[in-house]
Amino acid sequence: MESKPLSQRPVRYLLWLSVPVLTAALYALTTVISSVSFTLAEQIAAPLMRFDPNHAYLVISIHHVLQAIPAFVLIVLLALVLHKKISEFGFNKNELRFSVRSVLIFSGIWFVIQFVLAYLFTKTGVMDGSFPYPLTARNAIGNFLFEILLSGTSEEILFRAMIIPPMILLFRTFIKKEVAANIVAIVCSTIIFMLAHINYNLNPFTITHFSLAQQLTCLLFGSFYGWLLVKTKSIIGPMLAHNLLNGVITIVSLLIAVMF
User: Rounded CA gap, 129 and 121, in Å?
Assistant: First the structure.
């Protein structure tokens, strides 16, 4: 009977353990970056709240700018350590036309789906179509600009560019098929993305925000963003998709609020 070398089975099983370990570590890292950035954003925005008394856009805008900075710095450092080009982490214009076409098609389909569902759910009383802030022109414009300019730009650096390329580099050392390594990396980044949209307190542990609809949306969108990054090897497409889809969500929400 042929015995398998020690380096094949046990080591490969141990390397597979790196998948949940790395996912947990990167989730912790993204949580720390986001939490610290939000705390700093609140402090920076405090003397400026006269421009946004209803907390519709100012704090979250500053928060997203701040959280993108350490994420990008970590990517640069990782590129230096691994002797990789920054373009290998998605900062390039690869297949831009394909990205734009894919984003427009996906966003158009999602606009129809969300509008129909939002209309039906609001009409039947299943969903509340109200906004968390007064619908003034300043609030609506400020929040919309945040969604289409900053939300996806920042979060794609944090949740895709900082996570997927390093994961693929590691996973390819023990996952033979490139497609399998890519899928595992996309799944892991999507799980992190979904968890990031659940709010909780640690002491005592209590979940302060959980939305099933939001989680399903994060699952769908996160998988699309990850696929687009892997397909084009560019973060530009996921950024465009994330910003545009958040804009679509805002527009549909505004339309439903006006209609009802």
Answer: 9
DSSP state of 4: P
In whole angstroms, what is the distance from residue 151 CA to residue 66 CA?
12
* Tokens standing for residue 215: 């989680």
Q: What is the DSSP string of 36-66?
A: HHHHHHHHHHGGGGGG-TT-SSHHHHHHHHH
Q: Which amino acid is at 10?
A: P
Whole-angstrom Cα distance, residue 242 to residue 204? Answer: 33
CB 148 within 8 A of CB 246: yes
pLDDT tens, the chain, 260 aa long = 344 444 456 667 778 888 999 999 999 999 999 999 999 999 999 999 999 999 999 999 999 999 999 999 999 999 999 999 999 999 999 999 999 999 999 999 999 999 999 999 999 988 887 788 999 999 999 999 999 999 999 999 999 999 999 999 999 988 989 999 999 999 999 999 999 999 998 888 999 999 999 999 999 999 999 999 999 999 999 999 999 999 999 999 999 988 88
Q: What one-character-per-residue DSSP string does 110-163 give? A: HHHHHHHHHHHHHHTTSS----SS---HHHHHHHHHHIIIIIHHHHHIIIIITT
Cβ of 72: how many Cβ atoms within 10 Å? 18
Spatial distance between the Cα atoms of 134 and 80, rounded to a whole number of angstroms? 47
Neighbours of 115 (CB within 10 A): 15
